[in-house]
Amino acid sequence: MSAGLVVQTREFDLADDLLAYADPADPRAWLRRGDGIVAVGADIARVVRVGTGSEPRTAALSRAWDGIRADALVDDPLRLSGTGLVAFAALVFDEQSAADSVLIVPRTVIGRHGGRTWITRILDADSASGASAGDAAATTAHVADPAPTAFGPHWAGTLGPGAQTAQGYQASVRAALSAIADARYGKVVLARDLVGTVPAGSDLRRLVRALSTEYPDTWAFAVDGLIGASPETLVTVQDGVVTARVLAGTTARGADAVTDARAAAALADSPKDNDEHAFAVRSVVAALAPHTTALDADDGPFILELPNLFHLATDVRAQLSDGASALDLAAALHPTAAVAGTPTEAAVAAIRELEPFDRGRYAGPVGWIDAAGNGEWAIALRCAQFEVSGSGSDRPIALTAYAGAGIVAGSDPEAELLETRVKFRPIVDALA
């Protein structure tokens, strides 16, 4: 058994960009409108990787996290969102995926929330003096403050067709429509992929910065090579309050104010998109109900404006009733109808049949969790998975980007293909 951890959070005078402290080759970050947390450098205190097995991966990660936090001595006088013992995590979409779900506890975390900034240091108990959480400040006092790292030069990536071509995608949509007509399922979300490379030694923090700057209302994330900007909050837990944001129903924005307004109105009035959205809201409410009280959802969707898209969105709020952690709730919610379909089991089976690739962590939960079970989780959308090989490699860095669309009765294969092109835009523009 590994030794426990000693954790200490204190105020920190942060004069630089949060991302300046992250590892250029493998950044770990969670950002929104300038607030969030980043892991400093490459040092890791704990990492848990879970592949296929006899139990759900989220259950294995949750058990591992319970052991880590139970053995930790935490001194956190700030008690803000993201302070104290925290872990970054990225989970696979499908239990049958060949990719790993991963939970990473960094050695050092720097964060900002509501105008306050802090640093958290995480040491092994057997290398630190003291035997109580109150001694954590003394055990970490001798450690020098980290310094920011200058960003590397600008770079550009290349992207091209992946396993699912444009023609193949439309064929998969037609196959799904046939199955929907036969009542095998009511909705399925089908994705396609693009593959490419970025130059060896690229500072991947530049991609995170571009996404967080261009799409400030999304969660910009980087965890174990998975980098993206998700507009969809899967679940947030803070001091017993549970919130979620459901997105389903999408249209591209117009080229000017008139066409923009028309696009928003058409989305709001679309029976197809509203039906798809209602599917997604019902699945979230049903998944949260066993764990919460005072569960409340908006009466109808509102239009969420992003730089390139309009989404139908519904906010859900509740009070936690059973002590479930943010990771537990992410597991209960995933996969939502917004990224899989309805009924869930049939939709996931259809995805395995109709998508000629392994999604890995695309459309899976990504986020962070703390020692109290609080955390923020999004669905890994508008993202790419990078092959992280370390800063010393001289090989180009391979990547795969993903985008999908919800298929229901009445969907048009060409229109769904166009929707995926619009959804690829954030990652394609940032890579360029």
Euclidean distance between termini CA atoms? 46 Å
What ranges have pLDDT less than 50 throughout 5 or more consecutive residues? none
Number of domains: 1
Helix content: 25-40%
* Net shape: globular
The proportion of strand residues reads 25-35%
Helices, by number, come to 9
Report Rg: 21 Å
Tell me the major beta sheet: 13 strands, mixed
Mind explaining what this structure looks like?
The protein is α+β, with helices and mostly antiparallel strands and 432 residues long. The protein has one domain (5-431): Anthranilate synthase (4-Layer Sandwich). Helices cover 26% and strands 34% of the residues. The chain is built from 9 helices and 23 strands. It has helices at 57-70, 136-140, 166-181, 205-214, 257-269, 271-288, 326-333, 344-354, 413-431; strands at residues 5-11, 29-32, 35-39, 44-50, 73-75, 86-90, 101-106, 108-113, 116-124, 158-161, 187-198, 219-223, 226-230, 233-238, 241-252, 292-297, 302-305, 309-320, 341-342, 365-370, 375-379, 383-386, 397-408. Strands 1, 2, 3, 5, 8, 9, 10, 11, 12, 13, 19, 22 and 23 form a 13-stranded mixed β-sheet that branches. Strand 14 and strand 15 form a beta hairpin. Helix 3 (166-181) crosses helix 9 (413-431). The N and C termini lie far apart (46 Å). The mean pLDDT is 91.
Outline of this structure?
The protein is α+β, with helices and mostly antiparallel strands. The mean pLDDT is 91.
Keyword list:
432 residues; Anthranilate synthase
SSE blueprint:
Blueprint: E1 5-11, E2 29-32, E3 35-39, E4 44-50, H1 57-70, E5 73-75, E6 86-90, E7 101-106, E8 108-113, E9 116-124, H2 136-140, E10 158-161, H3 166-181, E11 187-198, H4 205-214, E12 219-223, E13 226-230, E14 233-238, E15 241-252, H5 257-269, H6 271-288, E16 292-297, E17 302-305, E18 309-320, H7 326-333, E19 341-342, H8 344-354, E20 365-370, E21 375-379, E22 383-386, E23 397-408, H9 413-431
Parallel strand pairs: 1-5
Antiparallel strand pairs: 1-9, 2-3, 2-12, 3-8, 4-7, 6-7, 6-20, 8-9, 10-11, 11-19, 11-23, 12-13, 13-22, 14-15, 14-21, 15-18, 16-18, 17-18, 20-21, 22-23
